[in-house]
Specification:
The chain is α+β, with helices and mostly antiparallel strands. It has 3 helices and 7 strands; from the N terminus they run H-E-E-E-E-E-E-H-H-E.
Length: about 140
């Protein structure tokens, strides 16, 4: 994505026009481990009950602040929500989480070049390849 994308999406998701961005896109804010500065980035997510699942490419750096788990602030469907985020980086764990992610949202498999088998399950080799390129983020939402 170009340099313009993140600032524009941050503005849009914080504005009353946030619905134009569609469902499945949120802002996640984390505090830098070393700097103490807040970092906010737009990210796609899939909801699974009281958890949100997301991915990021390994070359991005914001997710490193979630190593070992950390509090996060989300801008989710026009509301600010607190949660607890974790990042999974080892390929086996990422592959396991991605398989669950595609099980909940098979429409995203194509975006990751992951084929779905005749039974609807993601192709294991494709998931393993995707896991080499991505990290997996899971955010626990507060109980209602």
């Amino acid at each position: 994505m170009g340099r313009w994308y993140n600032p524009f999406m941050i503005w849009l998701l914080r504005s009353p026009l946030h619905g134009m961005a569609g469902k499945g896109l949120m802002l996640i804010s984390v505090t830098g481990c070393k700097s103490g500065k807040p970092y906010t980035t737009p990210i796609n997510y899939v909801r699974a009950n009281d958890r949100l699942m997301a991915t990021s490419t390994r070359d991005r750096t914001w997710w490193r602040n979630l190593r070992g788990g950390a509090p996060v602030t989300l801008r989710l469907e026009g509301r600010e929500v607190k949660g607890f985020g974790e990042v999974f980086v080892d390929e086996a764990s990422v592959a396991e989480h991605l398989a669950r992610y595609f099980g909940c949202a098979p429409q995203y498999a194509r975006l990751f070049n992951v084929r779905l088998e005749s039974d609807g399950k993601p192709n294991g080799e494709d998931v393993a390849r995707a896991a080499r390129e991505r990290v997996f983020i899971e955010v626990q939402l507060p109980s209602a």
